[in-house]
Amino acid sequence: MAGSARTSEPAATGPGRLHRYVIALGANRWHPRHGSPRRTLAAAVQALVRDGLTIEAVSPWLASVPLGPSRRTYANGAMRVASPLAPAALLARLQQVETAFGRRRRGQAWSARVLDLDIVLWSGGCWTDRHLVIPHRHFRDRAFVLTPARAVAADWRDPVTGLTLRHLHARLTAPRALPKRGVLRRLRPGP
User: Fold this and answer.
1) Domains in the chain with CATH codes
2) Is 8 helix (H, G, I), strand (E, B) or coil?
3) What global pTM score does this model have?
4) Which residue from 33, 115, 43, 104 is spatially nearest to 74, judged by alpha carbons?
5) What are the boundaries of the signal sequence (predicted)?
6) Cα separations in angstroms, 63 against 40, 67, 127, 136, 155
């Protein structure tokens, strides 16, 4: 394994040892073979099955507005998978699938893309190396990740906060009350 990894359980794989992962999927460009972003996500799931991943659950697809410069609506989803691959090897496999679907990494964050596959959570807890950080750094702040992830692994605990995906989703999507009028007065500068 390249780089040093920080994990909460051994990353070694052996006969019969399966790692479980929550993987986020996203697409917002038409694919010449598969068509719409939703159909591209479905085709990506099938490609991962052919690559040997065991798909335990797939969320419904949802539409979300893009972050950053892209103007096209995203199709997003999540899946819970089992694999003998350690995190770095799974990342390499996911990037091979993205490349096979036409993804080109040009360095611009949040641009339109035909397919995006991200490891969000791992059954081993935390993992950090030069190319991969698990849990995904931003998943707690993104409803387009938490909503489908909750659908496939509601009781999975974030190893950093200890909260379940169900709880993280509720925190993120709960309506927020406006501050009371008196609070606004106390925050105003002046006499």
Assistant:
1) 19-176 (3.30.70.560)
2) coil
3) 0.80
4) 115
5) none
6) 14, 13, 29, 20, 24
